[in-house]
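Recap quiz, item 2
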Amino acid sequence: MKPKERMAIPRQKPKELSVQERIDNFREIVFGFDHDTAMLEAERCLQCKKPGCVKGCPLHNDIPGFIKHLREGRIEDAYWTIRKTSSVPAICSRVCPQEFQCEGSCIRGKKGEPVSIGMLERYVVDWMVENNKNLMEPCALPIDKKVAIVGTGPAGMTVAYNLAHKGIYCTMYDSLPVLGGMLHVGIPPFRLPRDIIKAEFDALKACGVKIIDNITIGKDKSLQELKDEGFDAIFLGVGAHESRKLDIPGEDLEGVMHGVDYLREVFLGNRIDLGNRVVVVGGGNVAIDVARVALRLGSKDVFILYRRTKKEMPASQAEIHHLEEEGVNMEFLAAPVAIHGEGGRLNKIECIRMELGEPDASGRRRPVPIEGSNFFIEADAIIAAISQRVNPTVVNGIEVKRTRWGTFEVNPETLQTSVPWIFAGGDDVLGPQTVAKAAYQGRIAAESIEKYVKGEL
Ligand SMILES: Cc1cc2nc3c(=O)[nH]c(=O)nc-3n(C[C@H](O)[C@H](O)[C@H](O)COP(=O)(O)OP(=O)(O)OC[C@H]3O[C@@H](n4cnc5c(N)ncnc54)[C@H](O)[C@@H]3O)c2cc1C
């Protein structure tokens, strides 16, 4: 069957936005609870004896415990209860996909609306900030041990937080000029305002953590050189920043970009004009963030192309809801098979319709192409947001074992790699995951590193 033509839309440059318009577009959009709403919501918690929410939370935060303090009006105690297990509460309260984790296992949630754990956590943290309370405990007296942390994402931040509080000198390195990893160059500021990330780093610096940005370990300096400089152990928290390609003809045309590369460019302050009609390929949080950012930067017709249906989208329900409210359309059961262009620039995308077959390893029904169902979509840009891989060059010159997925192989209990003085955690071990899971691994790695440098591991 001959591919059908979609209505052609003339290519235009997106509307030029003023600096103020751009800033307004990126303001945080979800308001926090006020005091009365927080108290009413806290009252809904059943205070279960065997709380599923604690098990569901990757950090195992004492959720009923902090909610109990909140109900009693002891907000500082509520904060310190969370802080015992979470090094990044302000961040997790905003971006944790709680519907899959804590709330999914909430007894109340099994019968109706779950308790809004994230919003309550956010209320507690925001209250501490508004009331100028200390966000970190005092630091421990230094002991004569030094640890280098490669990567300033939530995994690295958590290692630094925990080791600094044990008196171990930490130096963090990052190849980017900004700190926070994907918190800064992935998650958009309308979901996670940048002053929250900055506050965490200010607190780490106040604890004596040294931070060196704009240096790529494995290129500007090797791990062996760090060891020779006197670091007793090294933690790798380099994340998964390499975009997976679509592997279809035409992917090298101008106008084709990849999700995390696009977001990184935008959040490093580089202007990228995609044109008006933008197709984003993928169904996860990255695809949704890309679409919402493109819309805010002036593209008028942005839509998501996903090979399964809405039900199978891995993105969080809340993000899908915002996406739809903001006017991004979704085209389901379709995938790109080729990108066509003229003069080196893309002008249309050839797609094929899909139907759902048997479930695959992930438990979701596998998308199967429908032969002869090809169709074209006119577009100015296509952004593929279909997952990321680990860039292993950080270990250049050292034989560190990796898994068949390219992640670092670690002892699951200690997070020690095949090289005893190198530990790893976060997305570079788990593959692209979540802030809370990266922070949890940071906590485990810090415990092991402390034992290792003291000769107790
Ligand atoms: C667009 C997007 C949206 C997301 N939304 C959510 C969400 O809503 N909720 C959620 O929980 N999770 C979300 N995530 C996932 C979450 O951000 C990651 O799982 C988490 O940041 C991983 O933490 P990490 O510390 O392992 O690595 P990262 O945060 O990726 O940090 C790694 C750091 O290492 C640095 N680095 C890499 N190589 C080197 C080197 N050789 N030398 C020096 N430095 C190096 C990088 O520059 C980076 O700063 C999202 C991710 C993206 C991309």
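The longest strand covers residues 345-359.
The chain has three domains: 35-130, 146-240+390-453, 242-388.
End of item.
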